[in-house]
Amino acid sequence: MNQTLPPSAHARATLVLGLPLIGSHLAQMALHVADTVMMGRYGVPELAATVLGASSFFIIFILGAGFAQAVMPMVAQALGRGDEVQVRRDVRMGMWLSIGYGVLCYPLFWWSGPILLALGQQDDVARLGQDFMRIAGLGMIPALLVMVLKNYLAALQRTQVVLWVTLIAVGVNVAVGWPLIFGKWGAPELGVRGAAIAAVVVQVATAGILAIYAGWLPELRRFRLFQRFWRSDWQAMGQVFRLGWPIGITSLMEGGMFQASSLMMGWIGTVELAAHGIAMQVASLAFMFHVGLSNAATVRAGRAIGAGDARGLRDGARVAIALSFGFGLAMVALMLALPGPIIAVFLDASNAQTAQIIAVGTLLLVMAALFQMADAMQVMALGLLRGIRDTKVPMIAAAVSYWGIGIPCSYALGFPLGFGAAGIWFGLVVGLMFAAVAMMLRFWTLAPKA
Questions:
Q1: Residue 131 class from Cβ within 10 Å (0-12 exposed, 13-18 middle, 19+ buried)?
Q2: pTM as predicted
Q3: Which residues have a Cβ under 8 Å from the Cβ of 445 and sit 6 or more positions away?
Q4: Which tens digits make up the pLDDT trace of 267-285?
Q5: CA separation for the pair 91, 145 (Å, rounded)
Q6: Segment 195-200 mean pLDDT
Q7: How many beta carbons lie within 10 A of that of residue 26, not counting itself?
Q8: How confident is the model over 405-431, as pLDDT tens digits?
Q9: 122 contacts: CB under 8 Å, gap ≥ 6
Q10: Which of 18, 23, 237, 374 is the one with CA 20 to 30 A from 147?
Q11: What does the H/E/C string look like for 88-128?
C-alpha cells in the first residue's frame, strides 16, 4: 500500500471495487421498481399506501443505517493497520447498534396509522399504509444487518458477492410478492400485506446468506465474526456510534431535501410533479454510479490511512474524483442531447398530458445536467471524508448547504421569483454545489501530506 502506484493502477483498483457496488445499488433500485409495478397492477389506493409505506420505511432506515455505513471505513482502516481483532469488534458492535435501533423504532411502524392520519393522509390510504408498515417494520433489523454485512464485505474488497446477493433478492421479491399480492399459485390474496411479507422475506433471506458467507467462508473464518457474539464491547460500540450517527443524520437531511422539493413541485401542478418524478428517476439512476465509486473511495481511503500511506490516499482520491467527473460529463452530454426521448421512455404516448410532461421534463433534464455534476462531487467528497473518519463537520456542512441554502433557494426561485419547476431544481443545484465545495475543501485540508 505504501508503494507509489500509477494513476492507471488506482483507476483499475477503484473500478474493480466500485463496479459491483454500482450494480448492487442499481439492483436495489430494481427492488422498489418491482414493488411499484406489482402494486400498480393491483389497485390505486394499494399502490399509494405501498409507496407511502416504503418511503416512510426508507426514511427511518437511512437514519439507522449510519451505524452500518460507519463499519466500512472503520474496517478498512483496521485492515490497513493489519488489526484483524478490531475488524471483528467494529462489525459486531455495528450489528448490536443496528439491532437496538430496529427494536426502538418499531413502535413508529405499529402506530403508523394514526401518524399518517395526523399528516393529512386519507383514511383508506392510512389504513392500508398501517397494514403494510406493521409487517414491513419487522424487516428493519435484518435490513440493517444486511447493510452492516455489505459494508464489512465491501471493506474486505469482496464486492461481487454484494452484487450477486442483491440480484438474487430482486428475483425472490417477485417470486414471493406476486403470488401473495394477487393470490396466485394457491397463495392467499393479501394485497399490501403480501408486498410487506415479501419485503421481510427478502431481508431475512439476504441477511442469512450474507451471514453464512461472512461467517463460514474459509478465507474469512480468521475474523471469527460471530464468535461469542453476545459479549458486549462498549469501547468499540462507542466508536461506531460516534462515527455513525452523523452519517445517519446527513443521509436523512439529504433525503429530506429531495422530499421537500417534491412537495414544492406538487404545489405548482400535477404535470410538473410528474415531470419532476421522471427527471429525478433519471438523475437517480445516473447517481448510482457516483455512489458506488464513493463507496470504493471510502474503502481505499480507509485502507490508505490505516497503512499510513498519505501519497496513496491523495493519488487514489484524485483518480476516484476524475472517474466520477468523467462519467458525470458523459451523462450531462446525454441529458442535453436527448432530453425528449429520455422523458418519453417513462410515458404513455396516448396520454393527453404526455406532451406537456415532456416539455417540462426536457427543461428539468437541463437542470439535471447541472445537478449531476454537483451531486457527484458532494457524494464523492462525503465518501472520502468517511474514509478518513470525519463525519461530524460534514454533517454540519450538509445541514447548512441542503437546508440553509438549497431549500430556501428552491422556494425563492420557484415561487417569489417565478421560475417555477426549473427554479426549484436550480435551488437544489445551488445547495449541492455549496456542499460539494465545502466538503472537498474539508477533505484536502485534512488529508495528510505525502
A1: buried
A2: 0.86
A3: none
A4: 887 778 777 777 887 888 8
A5: 10
A6: 91
A7: 18
A8: 999 999 999 999 988 888 998 999 999
A9: none
A10: 374
A11: HHHHHHHHHHHHHHHHHHHHHHHCHHHHHHHCCCCHHHHHH
